């Protein structure tokens, strides 16, 4: 259903900046989701690999700021340093989204609504999730191998990775899981907004805001965390077992938060709006 374009004082349609109605966003999601689910496994793996590499560049920028802040002010609280590092971290999200690569957490909305609308198969949804996750982890691991070469990056940057990792891997399991639910929810809101907002500047602002929130709030995004933890763990007392446990919990939490916290409710909202519109049309008939 087409939306009514409202005039704006600056000559740009308000809808172009603020986005569209929920049912229009879902309709676009159906077609985009069908296309995503039809891709080959190799295509998804490669796209995910690139996404892991690109988000790792955002992690590198953030670790550089973390190391600089904590080095200059050793008594500074980690959250203060995270708030500063979060200003530059969204570089990674910008590269991923504007560069058309992909994160595992981007697939909690669009492919799901396509399957619900019977425009894709559940098996292809699981394949998309698995392949994008493996690709992301592979990209993060490749960047970790590159950046872990001795003296490839400065010691202060390594200390930034280590501080982030030590905090993340020291959290209780329940805290990791709940934090991951929040991250999945936030990322699926971002996916929704990327469908809804058509103005390029608006998209960039949304990406930057969500990227800042993800990093500053220190929620457990499985790919973002992997981009830093894969490098930092060897400079802490933690082991690969701790890393694997964190990845497993954050992956599960991201799924719950994305699908259960956003997608289900957006689908319900759209279905109810459609029923309401049909009732109004019958009332006018």
Instruction: Tell how many strands the DSSP assignment holds.
Output: 0
Which geometry do the CA atoms define?
elongated
How many discrete structural domains?
A: 1
Gyration radius from CA atoms, angstroms:
20 Å
What is the H/E string?
HHHHHHHHHHHH
| CATH architectural type | Up-down Bundle
- At CATH level 3, the topology is Glycerol uptake facilitator protein
Commentary on this structure:
Pfam families: Form_Nir_trans. It is a multi-pass membrane protein. InterPro entries: Aquaporin-like, For/NO2_transpt. The chain is mainly α. The chain has a single domain (18-278), classed as Up-down Bundle (Glycerol uptake facilitator protein). The protein is 75% helix and 0% strand. Helix 3 crosses helix 4 (78-85). The radius of gyration is 20 Å and the shape is elongated. The chain starts with 13 loop residues before the first helix and ends with a helix.
SSE map:
Layout: H1 14-18, H2 22-37, H3 41-72, H4 78-85, H5 90-98, H6 110-116, H7 122-147, H8 155-169, H9 173-196, H10 200-216, H11 222-232, H12 240-284
